[in-house]
Amino acid sequence: MSIEADDRWAMLSRAAAHLDAPAAVLDLDAFDANAEDLVARADGLPIRVASKSVRCREMLRRVLARPGFSGVLAYTLGEAIWLVRTGTCDDVVVGYPTAEPGALAQLCRDPQLAGAVTLMIDSPEQLDLVDAVVPPHRRPDLRVSLDLDCSLRLGPAVLGARRSPVRTPEQAEAAAEHIVARPGFRLVGVMGYEAQIAGVADRRRTGPAARPGELIVRGMKALSVRDLRTRRPAMVEAVRRRADLEFVNGGGTGSLESTGAGGECTELAAGSGLYGSHLFDGYRGFRPRPAAAFCLRVVRRPAHDVVTVQGGGWIASGAVGSDRQPLPVSPPGMRLMPAEGAGEVQTPLRCTAEVPRIGDLTWWRHAKAGELCEHVDELHLFHDGRLVGAVPTYRGESQVFL
Ligand SMILES: Cc1ncc(COP(=O)(O)O)c(C=O)c1O
Predict the structure, then answer these.
(1) How many CA atoms lie within 13 A of 211 on its CB side?
(2) What DSSP string describes 348-360?
(3) 321 and 282 in contact (C-beta within 8 Å)?
């Protein structure tokens, strides 16, 4: 059962009535069903969990215990070290380059850590930086993965994330050759994430007529899939000429099908689809259940059709736009007011249907999945119509990595 339907929200309000808001709730049934959907969409490829989109060790453990999930894609080296040391996971790939001397020194001091953590690199400079912290002869070999640029270029336009400078098979082979020749490093993997497919919604409106904007996005995605169908396998093959790879990682919640279909990836990455944050409502091929939500209490009523809740301004990262605001979902018919938006301390809402009373709970969904956990110490777990416990977020364990 999920907390999507209106009566689910009402049930949640009853279950959470005793909580002081703001409080975050995770519907375990929806979480598990979302995990199952991701595995089905991955069609046999294992999914490495993108931990930035989870930020709760207990939920990472829960999903890693399911068939179809294997390993963590972490977002900083400090986080990766913590996950290994706490026994959460013994196969952690840091999905982004590291330049932090303290964390690198810790990794170099501990052979067990060095065997469990893979660094992401895309340039010799990052290797120089590691050597400057601890030279190769004074550390165990470090596992590294090469990040490949999977953005789409249309003339001067770059569609996708500005990440790696490695974008051709020739560049990939040269980079692999360089890493293999460097003492103290072992090239074990390759990653190529296509943000312009995985992270861009292509369905903003229900109904038969697509808007021109949607058609452009769909066209862009189709072009990008076609580009990657040849370019990513060619880059991977070029790297394989120089190193035996343990893994080739690609994709995200929004692209599992197209990434897997290419055939060159040995594993996929996904995280956001577990919590079902609202930016993932706008995809044509799938619809995660809204498993994570938070509640805010009504504290005043400035007009007959306006209520004000305490808090609200949990804005998501990324290019600034109204889609980064949290979405009020229950009671139905509440709208943020453009002049104020979701406020730092309080948020007014225009009510077009039911008008909640002072003291009532309102329910919200964050735009992004893991960022919700930066605002709360725990996730209250909802199962079978009641709250069955709570688990700490990273923040609740005093761990803040970014
Ligand atoms: C390297 C990488 N892989 C995969 C993902 C996909 O994560 P999610 O499934 O949470 O969208 C991301 C998200 O930004 C990423 O940066």
Answers:
(1) 10
(2) EEEESS--PPTT-
(3) no
For domain 28-275, give the CATH number: 3.20.20.10
pLDDT digits over 327-348, tens only?
999 999 999 999 999 999 999 9
Mutate to test the pocket of ligand 1, among 41, 53, 366 (most ligand atoms within 8 A of CB): 53
Query: pTM for the complete prediction?
Result: 0.96
How close are the terminal C-alpha atoms of the chain, in Å?
33
pLDDT tens-place string over residues 338-391: 999 999 999 999 999 999 999 999 999 999 999 999 999 999 999 999 999 999
CA 280 to chain centre: 11
Structure tokens at 323: 């889609």
For residue 58, the tally of other CB atoms under 10 A from its CB is 18
Nearest CA to ligand 1 atom 5: 252
51 lines ligand 1 (CB under 6 A): no
Residue 135 has pLDDT above 70, yes or no: yes
Q: What is the pLDDT of residue 1?
A: 42
Measured in whole angstroms, how far is the alpha carbon of residue 237 from the centre of its chain? 28
Beta-strand relationship, 92-94 and 69-74? parallel
Collapsing DSSP to helix, strand or coil, 284 comes out as: coil
Mention every residue, 6+ apart, whose C-beta is less than 8 A from residue 248: 189, 190, 191, 192, 236, 264, 265, 266, 267
Q: How confident is the model at residue 209 (pLDDT cuts 50, 70, 90)?
A: low
Return the best residue to mutate from 79, 163, 193, 372 for the ligand 1 pocket (most ligand atoms within 8 A of CB). Answer: 193
Q: What was the pLDDT predicted at 176?
A: 98
Q: Give the residue carrying structure tokens 């207990």.
A: 58
How far, in Å, is the centroid of ligand 1 from the Cα of 116? 20
Cα–Cα distance measured from residue 104 to residue 299, given in angstroms and rounded to the nearest whole number:
48
The residue ranges of every structural domain in the chain are 28-275
Beta strands 306-310 and 47-50 are unpaired
